[in-house]
Amino acid sequence: MLSLRTISRALPRFLPRLAAQSQPRFHPTVQSISLLQQTCKAASIPRYGAFSTSRAAREKEGQVDQELSAKIESELELEKEMRDSEQLPSSLQDYLDSSSFELQDTPGQEEVVLTRKFGDESLRVSFSIADLNAMDQDPNDFRQDPSDDPALYDEDDGSIPESAQSGGANTKGSINAGHRKDGNINIVPKDPITTADLTDPAHDESPPSDEDDEPSFPARVNVMIEKVGHGTLQIETTAQDGEIVIDNVYFFKDAELADAKTAELDWKRRNLYEGPPFGNLDEDLQVLLERYLDERGVNTALAMWVPEYIDFKEQREYLNWLSSVKSFVDA
After folding, report:
1. pTM higher than 0.70, yes or no?
2. Is the CB of residue 75 less than 8 Å from the CB of residue 322?
3. 257-278: b (≥16 Cβ within 10 Å) or e
4. How far apart are CA 239 and CA 288, in angstroms?
5. pLDDT per residue rounded down to tens, the chain (331 residues)
6. For residue 105, what are the β-bridge partners?
7. Which residues contact 234 (CB under 8 A, 6 or more apart)?
8. What strands, in cross-sheet order, belong to the sheet with 219-227?
C-alpha cells in the first residue's frame, strides 16, 4: 500500500519531466544562427575614423600656414607704406576732370576702358595692365635685334657680325683681326689709352644717363570709333614716351566684328581684308590719320596718362590679390 501510494504521488511530477526530455533541443542551433547574423551585420557596417573640426585638429595639417600669412602681411604693410593704392593721384584725376573721357575700371579685371562722344561718333579706348606685367625688367630687351644673336651664325665661315660678338671679343679699344687657326677671334688693340684719357671728360663716349628717370614702357591702346549704320573704324596704337604711334587701321561694316567676342564672329573677321600695314601708306595719309585721332582726344596727354594709370591699377590689383590670398590661407 505504501509503495503504491508513493508511486502515485511521484508520477504527476515525473511525467512532465519525461515529456520535456523526450523533445529535441534546438536552442544551441538557434543561438549559433543569431550570433552569425550579428557578426555579418557588424562586418557590413562601414566604420569611419573620428573627425574633428576643432582648432587643434586644423593646426596639425599646415605647418607653413602661419609663416606664409605673416609674410603676406608684411608685404601688404610694405606696399601700403610706399603708396596709397586707393586714392587716385592728382595727376591722373586732373586728366579725367579736364578731358571728355569717362573711366570704366572694374576691380579684378585687367582691362580699362575710356568712352566719350564726338559728334555722332562713339569712341571706346581700351588698354590693359597685362602690358606692364609682361614687360621684362630690362625695357630694352624687347628692342634687341634678332640678327644680333650669335647662335644664328656659323663661326667657321667667319660670318658673325661684330654686333653679335660677345663682350670679350668685341670690346672698346680692340679690333677684330680675323679668326685664328683654333677658331677663336684674333683681337689686336687699338691706339693705347692713357690714364689721362680715361679721366678726361672729352674722351668719355658713354651717353649721359639720368638715374632718376624711369624708362617708359609701351602700352597697347585700342581705339574704336563707331558711327551708327556706317560701321566701325578700329585703330591699334601704342602709347610710349608721350606719343601715340599708330600700328594698324581696320574698318568693319559690322560693328560687332570690331570687338569679336564669340568664335563665330572671330572667324568671320579673319576672312576679311584688313587693309595694308600702316607704314606702307602714303606719308601724308599717315599724318592725317594721326591728326584724326588727336582731334578726338587720342593725343599726347592720353599717351602720358595711360602708362601712369596702368602702374596705379596694377599696384591696387596686387594689393587686393595679396589680401585675397592671405584670407584664404587664414581661413
Report:
1. no
2. yes
3. bbbbeeeeeeeebeeeeeeeeb
4. 18
5. 445 555 555 555 655 555 555 555 545 554 555 555 665 555 555 555 555 555 555 555 678 999 999 999 999 988 888 876 578 899 999 999 999 999 999 999 999 999 999 999 999 999 999 988 776 544 454 444 445 555 555 555 555 555 444 444 444 444 455 555 555 555 555 555 554 554 554 545 555 544 445 557 899 999 999 999 899 999 999 999 999 999 999 999 888 888 877 888 888 888 888 889 999 999 999 999 999 999 999 999 999 999 999 999 999 999 999 999 999 999 8
6. 112
7. 222, 223, 224, 225, 249, 250, 251, 252, 258
8. 102-105, 111-118, 121-128, 219-227, 231-240, 243-252
Give me 68's grid cell: 606664409
State which amino acid sits at residue 138. D
Reading the block at residue 169, the C-alpha cell is 671679343
Q: Please give the single-letter amino acid code of residue 268.
A: K
Name the one residue in this structure whose C-alpha cell is 632718376: 212
